[in-house]
Design brief:
Blueprint (H helix, E strand, L loop, with lengths): L10 E2 L14 E7 L7 E3 L2 E6 L2 E6 L5 E6 L10 E3 L2 E5 L3 E6 L5 E6 L9 E3 L2 E5 L4 E6 L5 E6 L7 E3 L3 E3 L2 E8 L4 E8 L5 E6 L5 E4 L3 E3 L2 E9 L5 E10 L5 E7 L8 E3 L2 E7 L5 E8 L5 E8 L12 E3 L2 E6 L3 E6 L5 E6 L8 E3 L2 E5 L2 E6 L4
Parallel strand pairs: 1-29
Antiparallel strand pairs: 2-35, 3-4, 4-5, 5-6, 7-8, 8-9, 9-10, 11-12, 12-13, 13-14, 15-17, 16-17, 17-18, 18-19, 20-22, 21-22, 22-23, 23-24, 25-26, 26-27, 27-28, 29-30, 30-31, 31-32, 33-34, 34-35
Length: 371
């Protein structure tokens, strides 16, 4: 699923094939050209990803198409979710469940959303937010609504990020356009009852990012924009998961439309701004928020795709920056171990089974020679 797990750490602790000693040997194994590939998921050597209006199932080793499904007009830049041989994906005002092997539809429900939303599935329950101001819980097998929680008054325009889940609690970041604020909501995942709500920022138009939940802490990125649509700042912070109390918070004079990654006590993220000449990769101490390392390079400031959410695996931080390059950093020191020019970037990369999948205007599959 999006973020690798329900807590959205964007870190794969099982990857051992690609290491710091051999990552520089990565080469393109296959690529598929299309428009704005979403971040993929890989299950049973099948890669699932969305490009344009279509959900594709590809052989993860060769890139060969196994099946495809038309999601309707309107691009959804989301990550599908694959659980128990079912693929869950957002179409054009429809939520779909498909057989993961054949691509045949299992069920669909009408759904009022225009956002790039990735479903979260935990314990046979699918969670996803809608522009009708509600966070929904569906039975993942039937599509029946289990509960819904309205986070704002009727008439507001609401944008949701993919929610995170931990220990029976759903953590939801949403932007209320009527107030132009970002909020974090903690909901009982079984009933939808509100546990607490925290305002994350207080200026400009808001863009929500998916939270990351680790060891009783909710980490968030909250982005505000100016009236002309240009980015104003990104706020990175940590909240106590039990009550929403702020533990630390830092503002950055740039912004992004990505999210955070967490591994071994360190937070990773990238920043880029259409008005800034540079693009950045950051690693922070997750306990204090202090910077462990930072990488800065010239930005392609006309690139509206900005920079990506990182993927962490075996001591390596993979991320695309706003200079049309995809990087592998040493996760501890920030030194560059490998880089590749991918062009316009679209979504978060993933690392699985000795392969690195990087979605851009072309979907790239990188692997080691002879494997």
């Amino acid at each position: 699923m999006y973020g690798f797990n329900p807590r959205h750490t964007n870190a794969n602790p099982f990857e051992t094939t690609i290491s710091k000693s051999n990552v520089s040997q990565l080469t393109v194994k296959w690529r598929r050209h299309n428009t704005q590939w979403s971040s993929p998921v890989v299950v049973n050597n099948i890669l699932y990803s969305v490009a344009s209006n279509t959900l594709y199932a590809l052989n993860a080793t060769s890139g060969k198409k196994l099946w495809s499904f038309n999601l309707g007009n309107g691009y959804g830049g989301f990550t599908p979710t694959v659980v128990n041989n079912a693929v869950y994906a957002m179409g054009n005002q429809q939520l779909f469940a498909l057989n993961a092997t054949t691509g045949k539809q299992i069920w669909s429900v009408p759904f009022d959303t225009f956002n790039s939303v990735s479903p979260l599935v935990v314990n046979n329950v699918l969670y996803v937010g809608s522009t009708d101001q509600n966070m929904y819980a569906f039975n993942a097998q039937t599509g029946a609504v289990l509960w819904k929680y309205m986070i704002s008054t009727p008439g507001d325009t609401v944008s949701f990020a993919a929610p995170a889940y931990n220990r029976g609690v759903l953590y939801v970041e949403a932007a209320i356009d009527n107030t132009s604020y970002n909020y974090m909501y903690a909901l009982n995942a079984t009933t939808g009852a509100s546990l607490w709500t925290v305002e994350l920022d207080d200026a400009g138009g808001a863009v929500p990012s998916s939270p990351t939940v680790v060891n009783g802490v909710v980490y968030y990125m909250s982005v505000t924009t100016l009236q002309n649509g240009n980015c104003s700042e990104a706020r990175i912070g940590a909240l106590q998961s039990s009550n929403g109390q702020s533990l630390w918070m830092h503002n950055y004079g740039y912004c992004n439309n990505s999210a955070l990654a967490y591994s071994h006590g360190v937070l990773y993220f990238s920043l880029a701004d259409a008005q800034d000449p540079y693009t950045y990769a950051y690693a922070l101490d997750a306990t204090t928020g202090n910077t462990k390392w930072q990488y800065m390079t010239n930005s392609d400031h006309l690139n509206r795709h900005l920079a990506s959410t990182p993927a962490i695996a075996n001591g390596i931080a993979y991320m695309a920056l706003n200079n049309r390059n995809f990087y592998a950093f040493d996760a501890q020191t920030g030194s560059i171990l490998w880089q590749y020019a991918t062009g316009l970037f679209a979504g978060p990369p993933i690392v699985v089974n000795g392969m690195v999948y990087a979605p851009a205007d072309t979907l790239y599959a990188f692997g080691l020679p002879g494997m």
